[in-house]
């Protein structure tokens, strides 16, 4: 199990850094004024800042996933006699998170008759990511994984992004959202494969001796 946890941790960190650098590079190519984390730096200092910021976001993502696993485990145990209660609570929190994704930025930065459309981009991205990742998860496992996956991608990602909502620059907020969504999607899509491998290994150790089938007794001659 320890190897699986370390594999999940390091692949999330490495994949997050690669995704962060790609997002930053594309942002710089498409938008000349693309600046991450609201800090106007350039050259090697900017690349170093991007890597450090991305590593921080990856670590937040890993901690968020561990917290989600613990919460899910305990809630299933507490509400074992009410199978639909935890799913209903997750749907409630999903709806609440979607509403807060919009209103947090709108109430913080909206001025005068400013259009609401510009504040719908990040919520739409997170919702779309949740729908896509949950569909992939269902295809890899079963239909019971849809609501937990939606909950993790939408609710947990929203909680992880709370400090970033103080950023006024939309491109920087988009950068944070893409990195967190990528890390979260990777973790929830790969974790069941790691746990299944561990269970299979526990049931059939690699060094276990192979038992030969019992020999049938030979028929006695008359």
Automatic annotation (TrEMBL):
TM region(s), chain numbering: 7-27, 47-73, 85-104, 116-136, 148-167, 173-191
Region (Disordered): 202-222
KW Transmembrane helix (keyword) present: yes
Pfam family, one: KbaA
This protein's record includes keyword Transmembrane: yes
Compositionally biased region (Basic residues): 213-222
Keywords per UniProt: Membrane, Transmembrane, Transmembrane helix
InterPro entries: KinB-signalling_activ (IPR024164)
Record SMART domains: KbaA
GO biological process, one term: positive regulation of sporulation resulting in formation of a cellular spore
Protein name: KinB-signaling pathway activation family protein
Annotated organism of origin: Paenibacillus lutrae
């Amino acid at each position: 199990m320890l190897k699986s946890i370390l594999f999940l941790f390091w692949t999330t960190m490495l994949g997050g850094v690669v995704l962060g650098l790609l997002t930053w590079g594309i942002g710089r190519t498409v938008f000349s004024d693309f600046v991450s984390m609201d800090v106007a730096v350039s050259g090697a200092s900017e690349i170093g800042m991007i890597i450090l910021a991305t590593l921080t976001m990856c670590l937040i993502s890993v901690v968020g996933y561990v917290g989600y696993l613990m919460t899910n485990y305990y809630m299933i145990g507490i509400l074992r006699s009410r199978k639909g209660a935890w799913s209903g609570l997750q749907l409630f929190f999903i709806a609440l998170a979607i509403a807060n994704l919009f209103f947090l930025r709108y109430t913080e930065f909206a001025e005068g008759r400013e259009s609401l459309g510009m504040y719908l981009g990040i919520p739409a991205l997170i919702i779309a990511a949740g729908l896509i990742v949950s569909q992939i998860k269902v295809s890899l496992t079963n239909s019971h994984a849809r609501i937990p996956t939606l909950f993790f991608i939408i609710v947990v990602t929203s909680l992880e992004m709370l400090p970033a909502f103080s950023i006024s620059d939309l491109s920087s907020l988009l950068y944070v959202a893409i990195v967190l969504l990528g890390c979260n999607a990777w973790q929830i899509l790969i974790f069941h494969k790691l746990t299944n491998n561990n269970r299979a290994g526990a049931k059939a150790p690699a060094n276990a001796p192979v038992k030969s089938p019992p020999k049938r007794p030979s028929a006695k001659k008359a």
